[in-house]
Amino acid sequence: MLVTGALGEGRVRCPWHGACFNVETGDIEDFPGMDSLPCYRVTVGEAGDVKVRAKRTELATNKRTRVMAKRVAQDERTYVVIGGGPSGATCAETLRQEGFTGRVVMINKEPALPYDRVKVSKTMDMNLEKCLLRTQQFYDDNDIEVMLGTAVTKLDGATRELTLDNGYKIRYDKAYIATGSNPRRPPIEGADLGNVCVLRTAADAKQVNDQLGPEKRIVILGTSFIGLEAAAYCVNKVAKVTVIGRGA
């Protein structure tokens, strides 16, 4: 894919979603994306022959994770990440990649580890395990605490203490709020009925997918790429899909 990307100033940028990589180190420098690219040692012989040295594991995966710092017991600092989407997951990783050795806690209201939310509107029958950005083992190996199915109910900036919905309190030195946005239901009669769904989480996608059937008629409010991707997914699974937008 990067063969058709934009190359300049020592960086190559993916033409699809804009992920940017350093051409010398392979490190990812702009998102979306989580992994860096592997770098191979290249030598050119006197006869012009080119030799490339690479690890078999990197050739198999074609990706590389940057070196992470480990937690040091003497470092009493705590960095709390509120939100378990791609932004929160990236923040937690970046802290370790940049050498932070204190406690890192990521709090996610959803019951799942951070996953590729882009796939929610593309494949509503998504296999969540295959869409995870990282495994639990990854977070364990890099000393990143993950609290799932947990919401922050109060954040006191003066005392630097936050309260969770289970009553647990955490003192922090710094907090990163990455809760994202919520889909807005239109203020019209019937918007709260059981067959009216919003689409943001994997649970939302499952709710929509469970209601599809060859006799169903689907109406989608919104003509953004999310609405149109949802329409494309549903069109062969229902009797009719209608997309409604405000624009002409």
Q: Give the biggest beta sheet.
A: 4 strands, antiparallel
CATH fold name of the largest domain: FAD/NAD(P)-binding domain
Number of helices: 5
- Poorly predicted residue ranges: none
Radius of gyration: 22 Å
Task: Give the quaternary arrangement of the chains.
Answer: single chain
For the record, the CATH class of the largest domain is: Alpha Beta
Number of strands: 15
Helix proportion of residues, in percent?
10-25%
User: What's the arrangement of strands in the largest beta sheet?
Assistant: 1-2-3-4
Global shape: flat
Strand proportion: 25-35%
In total, how many domains does the architecture comprise? 3
Average predicted local confidence, pLDDT: 91
Features:
FAD/NAD(P)-binding domain; alpha/beta; 248 residues; four-stranded parallel sheet
Give a description of the structure:
This protein is α/β, with parallel strands linked by helices and 248 residues long. It has 3 domains: 6-59, 3-layer Sandwich (Rieske Iron-sulfur Protein); 78-177, FAD/NAD(P)-binding domain; 184-247, no CATH class. The protein is built from 5 helices and 15 strands. The strands form 5 sheets. A 4-stranded antiparallel β-sheet has the order 1-2-3-4, with no helix packed on it. A 4-stranded parallel β-sheet has the order 9-8-7-13. The chain has a 3-stranded antiparallel β-sheet with strand order 10-11-12, with no helix packed on it. The radius of gyration is 22 Å and the shape is flat. The two termini are 35 Å apart. The model has no long low-confidence stretch (mean pLDDT 91). Its cofactor is FAD. This is Rieske domain-containing protein. It comes from Anopheles maculatus.
